[in-house]
Sequence to fold (119 residues):
Amino acid sequence: MAGEPQADCLFCKIVAGEVPATVVRESETTVAFRDINPQAPTHVLVIPKVHYPDAGTLVAAEPGVAADILREAAEVAAGDKVDESGFRIVFNTGTGAGQTVFHAHAHVLGGRGFNWPPG
Fold:
């Protein structure tokens, strides 16, 4: 059921404390942790504690939680001191966009330059 923890979901297991992660922030609705395969000096994932497969389904069902993810992403950037130099927030939605874990999440990337369009 949407919103409920999924037994086979890596990120649900991180939320439950069953899988270790380097947590940098936690709120009532989100957990932020360092990516295990960083693509920038700052690469933190911000996930909702509720399970939805992607950003579109999350925002349709729980727009307040989606807003919480963006707020926490900004706090992560400030905490890593990349807020003034610039950072990127990325939601990959679907395999064609590079999503590999089907639990909505935002990537917070910073600490290096980024090209546009992304590639």
